[in-house]
Amino acid sequence: MTKKYKILAQFVKDISYETPDIETYLQTKDNILKYHLSLDINSKFLKNKMVEVNIISKFQETNLERKKSNFEITYAAVVRFDEILKDNKEMEKIVLVSIPSEIYPNLEDLFITLINKAGFPEVKIERKVDFEKLYNDKLN
């Protein structure tokens, strides 16, 4: 299948890291391997056959009982389509699978760097994200 779009730009739209105090840092340090990565994708149509695609990634601990650190990055891509796609399913798949698959490696590198430089060098994101599988799971 020929690519029907071109990524014009990729950039960090928002980045946030918060550890309010030393107690939270130590609590996070003890529990960082229990943190989970979650992703959300949204898009916004722009003019001239362009779309902005955002991947919002959060690395957090789900146990709300304890103090915890928060890590979040919104990574954006501006994409121009070669033509207006009449098939909404094709457009949806490009926005939710093809573009995120292309830009995710940059987001992943950035996210790992943020977490490691924030004082948690032991964190590695081992699993690769299969956007095709996520898309198909959503359909079923």
Question: What's the layout of helices and strands?
Answer:
Elements (H helix, E strand, L loop, with lengths): L4 E14 L3 H10 L4 E10 L4 E11 L9 E12 L6 H30 L13 H9 L1
Antiparallel strand pairs: 1-4, 2-3, 3-4
Helix pairs in contact: 2-3
Describe the fold and architecture.
The chain has helices at residues 22-31, 88-117, 131-139, and strands at residues 5-18, 36-45, 50-60, 70-81. With 140 residues, the protein is α+β, with helices and mostly antiparallel strands. A four-stranded antiparallel β-sheet has the order 1-4-3-2. The protein is elongated, with a radius of gyration of 17 Å. The model has no long low-confidence stretch (mean pLDDT 89).
Number of strands: 4
**pLDDT < 50 stretches:** none
The first-to-last residue Cα distance is 24 Å
Secondary structure: helix percent: 25-40%
Measured by DSSP, the beta-strand proportion falls in 25-35%
Contiguous helical run count: 3
Distinctive features:
35% helix; 4 strands; four-stranded antiparallel β-sheet; alpha+beta; 140 residues; elongated
Summarize the structure.
The chain is an alpha+beta fold.
